[in-house]
Fold these 3 entries.
Entry 1:
Amino acid sequence: MHDRARPAPFLKWAGGKRQLLPRILQLVPARIDTYYEPFVGGGAVFFALAARGRFRRAVIGDANAELVICYQAVQQDVDGVIAALRKYRNDHDEYYRVRAKDPARWSPAARAARVIFLNRCGYNGLYRVNSKGLFNVPFGRYRRPLICDEEKLRAAAQALRTVRIACGDFAKALAKPRPDDFVYLDPPYVPISATSSFTAYASRDFGTAAQERLAETLRALSARGVPALLSNSDCATTRQLYRGLDIERIRARRAINSVARRRGPVDEILVKVGVGG
């Protein structure tokens, strides 16, 4: 099977984990009964594990309803998604027309195609909504983005075939994992500056209270003997939230910041519970 046929993310995603994958994969248990990822985003870790056959079952999800519908549509009707996606062009005016439309009454396949189109042609793979929950990322002005990658979509559909995909709060999804399972947590990061905050990826921000609940949830997983791994920004807040747990600093290159000179390598952390060395 050549590389293009292997399961891989079909969405660009701000804060994606492709750069950190080598280290993350070193820390993941060799065999997993059920894999849990409640902040799936672009799914880099999920697809990497699926390609390697590292889990028996998987439960993925997100608080972003449009993202979840997109994954479900690719899983259940990839032909419909591809057919709808082929109609789109990388055009400034078309982008803003599509962005302005309310997809609530559209079919799941049409909604998924809209998400993929906006993702492929919008600025830097960013998903951001305003206070009314409306997508507000500007046109990206890429010269020739590949809007419909049929082979990648079909490979993703195959990887998602038996996966449970749900929309909702992370705490509900993490009530069931057991010691034979594995949990990966990649929440919206704690901002390290005023210009680095892009937490409005769903109808509600993932703010301080949510970060604190997540830290409590990770400690609860540890108490139950569930192996888990969490990624976040490296800052005083996260160091305090996860004090006493096994924290590893890791470097990543990030491209999103309103100040160009601040784009580049940054420190992030991996919080390890019952995994790796």
Note: DSSP finds ten helices and seven strands in the chain.
Entry 2:
Amino acid sequence: MWEGLSRSYNKEPYTIRRMLTEGAVKVGDKRAVFVGVDAYEAAGGVILRDLFVHDHGGWLQDVALLDRLAREKLREAAEALRAEGWKWSEIAIDFPYGHTNGLRRLPASYAPISEEEQARYDAALAEYNALSDEHEGADDLPEEVDHRMAELEKEIASVDERPAIYDPDEIARAGIFVSIDHAGALKVERGFVRPEDEASTTVTEISADGGAARAGNGLDGAIVGDAIGARTDGSSSADDETEISAKLSDRLLSELTAHRTLALRLALANDPDAAFLAATHALALKSFYGSGHFDGCIEVETKSVFLGSYAPGLADTPVARANDEANGHWQLRLPKRSQDLWDWLLKADRDATAGLFAYCVGQSVNALQLPHDRRLRALEHADQLAEHLGLDMSAHWAPTAESYFGKVTKARILAAVREAKGEATAQMIDHLKKADMATEAERLLQGTGWLPEPLRTASLEAAADAQTGEIGEGEALPDFLVEDDGDTLTDAEEDEPHAAAAE
């Protein structure tokens, strides 16, 4: 590296730091937080530290060792949790988004809290809200207030996050997913049942050729009994005109049910409320009870494309966590058996039915743009839907060196900076190498709300004009024009040779 720098024109401190730490992991990485720096060093891991500026703990050099320690710790945690009675467990540093699709989530109950605990909870929540309102908008909280709010958060969490209680019989065929959350803490997702582990149940259905199910009907049973009695009484069964059969011909059965199907179509077309209920029933069956069969007469289906393989790290985003919470909310509210869903919908209020309908429809959205899939009309419709919803992707995504700038050309990086900050700012970084340019672009565009074209909503884009112009008062200079203490280099200082590292 020393030899390479001696031949390079770019010897700024941030460039040297980037070269030294390339491929390393920051101490703030969720794997490092989960394993712990002490455990990493005890296993022989090396930490690189910066002697000249604050490095937030340094960089872990042995990434393979860190991953191994993280998996070992996850495996130990999973084995301890299996003692609760779970049938299986899976571990991963990161699970792809959507890894629980197709699995049933067990309903859970929670231990009741005493009147004393409820009173403490209410008091803590009221005090926390009062302190939040009192110091709303303050840049820094007083130390004593910050300490008190932390205590109140623990008090509230002790009630809100009390452990879930599951049916022991259900636990015996369910499992858990064990991973690391975005903050570096152990993440345990309990109570998921695979389709092959579902308890086998026999549902009596009316078969096409009559059978035992029809024998349960009073009228059919009487007819069958009369027919059998006629035969046992010695009367002739050869006379087709006098024999009464419980079975209709397949052709007649199809003819009658065709009339009924058409009548149901007309009746449903004239009853929007019933149609909405029937559509919600069909969509919920597919979304929450999809196990290879369809238990409804409304043939409306949705598909939900798997997104985890297209965007690494998607599961750690706030929007993914919110979507998972919505899925869990409905899984725990809906009845366990698909046969009970219709009755549940009839008893549910309009808000609950509408919420379920909206969730199921939402999960069917596919706005993916793939090179091998020419879906121009579908993508146009996605734009129209985003317009109608007023979707602002800047609330869910921001351009960084990792998420965008490191994956596009230098020309695109400069175009983004030029669009968001003006030509003068773009010219200030146009001489940098690709990696350095990506890092500077991330810093310069932070908080601007700039989005690449595929993520833009036209109406919002028109409403917000791009900020352009020369760097003025309050405009942050790029890191390579600023010393580590924040002082801008003068022209004379720029001409002076850099001090040697030994000095």
Note: The beta strands are 25-26, 47-48, 59-60, 88-91, 104-105, 109-110, 164-165, 175-180, 186-193.
Entry 3:
Amino acid sequence: MTHKAAYIALAGLLLGTLLTGPTVGAPEPSQAQIEWQLDFVYKTPKPIFVKVPGKAEPQLFWFMVYKVTNRTGEDRFFVPDIVLYTKTGQIRRAGQGVNVAVYEHIKQLLNEPLLRDNVGMTGKMLQGADNAKRGVAIFTDFDLKAAGFDIFVGGLSGEFAVVNLPTPIEVTEVNEDGEERTVTKSSVVLGRTLKLSYGIRTEARSRIEAKPELKDKTWVMR
């Protein structure tokens, strides 16, 4: 299985088991760094209206610009796994349901022609500041009633743990040919993941002017 296929399979597995909350008996990330970890610098998520082809009215999206630098001493393979969870239970995976026109609009708006989307960020991370990559995570709009959301950023660390499930579950995996298959899993692999928790105003009229406030930044196993 390729790196991309393995990532998709793992993402599907984790979503199928962890969306409703922390796994029973899930481990905590190490306090002292025990594995390699990429540097991750980010900006506060922002809302933006974009006229998408085929839509009569501009659509609202959210985007977070970030930079990843490899100072681990070795080249690393980076696969960004960035997911937004609202306090009302909605899930938005970066790039999912986002027209390429939104990405192009943000590049032009920020005057950053080299800004990368999730696909562009995926691949080998060479060492050093000169080889840092700037990316943007884009999400479709979410519930106006949500007074906050969490953004989970995976793929930054080499720290993983295997957790046995109380009961086996069925999950869908996708191979390198894009074919889906259902398999039974009795354990899940959790990776060290950055969790960013934001609070946000819920008034509809101020949505485009919303300025999320960072409430907490921590590392979890997910």
Note: The chain is about 15% helix and 40% strand.
